[in-house]
Structures are given as C-alpha cells and as structure tokens.
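Appendix B, record 7
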Amino acid sequence: MIGSDVFREDALRSKCIIVTGGGRGIGEAISRMSAAAGARVAVVARSADEVNSVAQAIEAAGGTALGLTADVSDTESVRKMCAEVEQTWGQIDAVVNNAGINPGPALGTPDAVDTAVVSDLLDINLTGAFRTIEAAAPLLMDSEGTIINVASVGGLVGLPRQHPYVASKHGMIGITRSMAIDLAPQVRVNAVAPGYVATQLTEPLQNDAHLQASILDRTPLGRFAEPAEIAAPVVFLASDAAAYMTGSILSIDGGWTAR
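Structure tokens (predicted):
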C-alpha cells in the first residue's frame, strides 16, 4: 500500500504547494501526501466544504494547510487565490494543475457533440492551467519552483468517444513541454499521465461491468490505480529529488500505453 511513509518526512519541508482540484480524488491524495512530506498545502477547489474538509484533516494529522475556494475558469478568482497564498505564506514553490472535468463517453461522436460542453471542458482542463500558471509565475520564478500538470493517458493516446477530453489532455502535455523550455532554468515543468484511477469521477466506469472489463483487459496490471499511487510521483516531481527533470511526462497507467 502506497502511503506517506514512501517519503522522508522532510522531502517537501518549507515548500508551499498549491493543488487545484484538491478537494477530492487524486487532488485530495496529492494534498494529503504533500502535507505528510512536510509541505504547506493550499487545497483549492470550487467547493468550500471539500477544501475545508481536506485542510482540516491535514491539520488534524499535524500538517499545515489552507482551504481556498477558486474557479480555474475565472481569471480573477485564480489571481485572488494566489494572492491569498502569498499573503499567508509569502511564497509559492509548486503548483499542481489537477482541476479538471470529464463527461466521459457521454461526449458522443464528433457529429453529435455539444460544443458548449467542449468549450467548458477546454476552459477548465486546459485554459485553467494557463490561468493558474500566469497568476503564480512571478512567485514561482522567485522561488525557482516547479509546476506539475496532471494530464492523462488520454494525452498520449486516443480514447473512443472522448475527443474533447483527449484534446485537452494532449494540450496539457504540449504546454508542459513548451513551458519547460520557456521557464527554464528558474522553473521546472513536468506532468503525470494517469490511467484509470478509482475515484468518484470513475464510479460509473467501475459500476458498469462491460466497461470495467474492457478497461481491465487493456491494462496489463489488471486494476484501477489508487489515488495515492498518482500522488506519490507528483510529490517526487515537487521535491528536490527531481531537480534535473523538466519537460518530462510520467505515465502512471498500469501499462496502458505499453501496448
């Protein structure tokens, strides 16, 4: 079982990390594991109940956290969030762009897709990362910090009936590589590309026997990932252990893209 004991207690000591989409699922696991590794964590999402719950759990476990509501589709909301982190802790050392949505196969075929849904998806999944990076960039430059983008196997290969989501995650990988060039040497930029993870978002897939069987058959390790198994590589990328990594994409997919 993957847990906080994977890392030295001081792996992220003195670092301040923003985790968007941090209120549940992968984002919650990243927030908790970052705090367990010594970071001060700004847990960010649209739901006040979710971010406060995660922040309180971190504090109860002896960590340091701040629950903040922000909408990555709103520029002013993101700037206000980054300003509050700066006011509270005086620095930003890492940004984890994890906020995202995925309507899944309901997006339909290209001739039937709802363009309003596509617009919203791209605005949150891709443009939201741009907004967050833009707002945090001055402090990241000062701290010689790092950006970790949470992409997907859908950013590396095609997925049926999910073309807008796939486009957003291919874009996330593209900005990771380009920003790694433009922001070097002060800021490192990397990404993780998870496969299917057992979260609330994937419950419909896990509860559909046919879809689940198809996914597991395509995954050499034969199971969905646990959120902590995605969080651990993110914490690694945020730490000094990854000091010579930038522009890298870590596939955490149970072997999905090995086929």
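Remarks on this record: The first helix runs from residue 25 to 36. The chain has a mean pLDDT of 92.
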